[in-house]
Design goal:
By secondary structure, the chain is an alpha+beta fold. It is built from 5 helices and 12 strands. It has a 5-stranded antiparallel β-sheet with strand order 3-11-5-6-7. Strands 8-9-10-4-12 form a 5-stranded antiparallel β-sheet, with no helix packed on it. Strands 1-2 form a two-stranded antiparallel sheet.
Length: about 325
């Protein structure tokens, strides 16, 4: 709550700001909380809010803001002995000249980190290898890569996604030959990288994502992404489905569905030929690759989950 010039800043007002910062940076609940230790703390009722208290709050604000957008909050350091005003700070009551060090400036900075709580700056994250599966033998029909993501606790799962974490999917087919295999290679290349975050699944290329993310999962599989083939191979598709096995374990199923029933028959039928099309196998080296985007660094760092393949290509 903003204060006016001439008001006394109370311990309760400071504690209100500190509690809001702790909700973003600390344990929080639901969509709030990165699971980090804080520098600031509550002050006792009736106590004087000191420059040290405000500076500790500024440290936590800067960590949150840096994590979210890569820059410090727009609040000044308050020196020991300074008077904290509503909209400025200074050495004494007659010279409150620092206009970004007032109590209301700190409140505005808290508003900002609350608005950006689910954002992450690229410089405060790492893209890391998670798991993969590879197949070199020819195939037809449906083949599956399935894996689990296990967090240390339900809170660790929340911290991972609240801090901007993503589970990323990509696939490619190389060394292939033939029109069907070439179409599969094009399909997989064109979909780019699929990103599963707290609220949605998107792709850097083409394909159909969804408004399903971590907080939308149930105990039953839901399709979160689909990419289909083209031309004679439009029946083929790549699908990702996801579910929550428990509050701390997620499961993903990636299907490579070669549902094409064969090339159209040649008409008129040449002498001695067999009616019907040919359903050729897919050849080459197929790779399904999983990565994660995780909050890392000195501002916010969350624990990595573990990845286990339960079905390989």
């Amino acid at each position: 709550m903003a204060v006016s010039s001439g008001d006394t800043i109370t311990a309760a007002q400071y504690n209100g700001l500190q509690s809001r910062v702790a909700t973003v940076m600390g344990t929080g609940s639901g969509l709030d909380g990165y699971g980090q230790s804080l520098t600031s703390a509550q002050v006792s009722a009736g106590a004087t809010v000191t420059a040290t208290d405000m500076d500790n709050l500024r440290v936590d604000l800067n960590k949150a803001n840096n994590h979210q957008i890569g820059a410090n909050s727009n609040v000044a350091n308050i020196a020991v002995g300074n008077v904290i005003g509503a909209d400025a700070t200074g050495a004494d009551i007659s010279s409150l000249t620092t206009t970004d060090g007032g109590f209301n400036d700190y409140e505005s900075a808290v508003d900002t980190i609350e608005s950006n709580k689910l954002s992450i700056d690229a410089g405060n994250s790492s893209v890391e290898a998670a798991t993969s599966s590879t197949r070199t033998t020819s195939w037809n029909g449906v083949i599956t890569h399935e894996f689990t993501v296990t967090f240390a606790s339900a809170n660790d799962r929340r911290f991972f996604f609240n801090s901007g974490g993503e589970i990323r999917f990509s696939a490619n087919l190389s060394g292939q030959s033939g029109s069907k295999s070439d179409d599969w290679s094009t399909l997989l290349n064109n979909m780019g990288t699929i990103k599963f975050n707290y609220t949605q699944t998107t792709s850097t290329g083409s394909g159909t994502g969804s408004s399903i993310g971590n907080y939308d999962l149930t105990g039953a599989y839901q399709t979160i992404f689909t990419k289909t083939g083209s031309g004679n191979y439009a029946e083929n598709d790549y699908n990702i489905a996801a579910r929550a096995d428990s509050s701390s374990v997620l499961r993903f199923r990636i299907e490579f569905r070669d549902d094409d029933s064969g090339d159209p028959p040649i008409t008129p039928l040449p002498k001695g030929a067999t009616p019907g099309g040919v359903d050729e196998d897919v050849n080459g080296t197929l790779a399904s690759t999983i990565q994660q985007l995780r909050a890392t660094g000195s501002n916010v760092e969350v624990a990595t989950p573990s990845y286990t393949n339960t079905s390989n290509l």
